[in-house]
Amino acid sequence: MGELANIFIKSAFIENLALAYFLGMCSYLAVSKTVKTAFGLGLAVIFVLGITMPINWLISEYLLSENGIFGMDLTFLRLILFISVIASMVQLVEMVVEKFSPSLYNSLGIFLPLITVNCAILGGSLFMVSKEYNFSESVAFGLGGGFGWFLAIIAIAAIREKIQYSAVPGPLRGLGMAFLLTGLMGMAFMSLMGIDPGAF
Amino acid sequence: MSELKELEKKEAAFAFGKKERKLLTDPLNDNNPITVQVLGICSALAVTTLLDKALVMSIAVVFVCAFANLIISVLRNSIPKSVRMIVQLVAIAFLVTVVELILKAINYPIYVELSVFIGLIITNCIIMGRLEAFAMANGPWKSFLDGIGNGIGYGIILIIVAAIRELFGKGTLLGYTILGDWYTPNGLMVLFPSAMFVIGILIWIHRSWNRNLIDVS
Hints:
The structure holds two protein chains of two kinds.
Chain A: H1 2-14, H2 25-30, H3 35-64, H4 78-100, H5 102-108, H6 111-114, H7 119-131, H8 135-163, H9 175-190
Helix pairs in contact in A: 1-8, 3-4, 3-7, 3-8, 4-5, 7-8
Chain B: H1 2-13, H2 18-25, H3 41-46, H4 51-75, H5 84-106, H6 108-114, H7 116-119, H8 125-135, H9 140-170, E1 172-173, E2 176-177, H10 192-209
Antiparallel strand pairs in B: 1-2
């Protein structure tokens, strides 16, 4: 259990998908204008990461590896399978959420389908493979990574809301400033590197 | 008569006039994928620590973008609307797998260094974005050119950023020493945040020079 908590903390803070690996930057920059929308997208990312990660783990373990049911090395199919899983999971999650919780569905709105092309999701799955996690570790990694991404987008959205009232030079306004801010936040998060989560 | 029309159509299909040239040059400045459309940022940040990585990545993206546009544009009238995302992703994933295998075969060290980022070309929003915005509505030849243009527009920014980061971070370009012993490499330039700063400043310069692009909000 402690091992899993370690992985959660590590993937949420120390190896933050958004601020340490800069994954999912496109939607991170595009959807961080207000805290409210950032909150919706962040929740959706946690959700999808937490679901797709274990499924992709099962696929790479039981379908693609040499010990799987086909008994041969099929890793060259990995990208195609992973992305299809993600696309179909997002579609499925969308339908389920629409059916059982219309209010959540309305608040997530367009962000659910957008998640398919959020590289944090596919990147998370590829990292999971390269780090050779087992099943429960991959769940912890997915949830932790999603939580870290959620924190990062809320933070930048809050800063961007405040900076609206500052006198930023014209050409730097909006996008340019968002880049510089993310760079500064990335530097702040870098200071967490090297912390041993086992110490907690 | 109809044959003549067919012939004219065919010629028009491969014409290279003003419009086609615009498709190629527009993404370099007014409609740059990175500094204006904000697409494909993730890989732009991650692979720009060294110039050779950025070069390989740019070539891969030009290839995938051009051919994905071509494939989807050819298929565009036979794809049902409800599953078009999945069809597009499968087409992109196929091309990326091809690139991955080729790169693995011809330059394994670079393949290892780029690690997951070659795979992440699939979710590079430039490709998806151009498929949605252009290839679904235009003919194959134009889409192909648009793909090349956007790939190059992306590549140029990537190469500029990588050159700055490698020059100041390591004092080298493509592995050759440019700044001699007197220069102490700036370690920050090799780390991720500096890519953000460099692109932020590039956007600043680009928008000061091309004032139409300034964000009014």
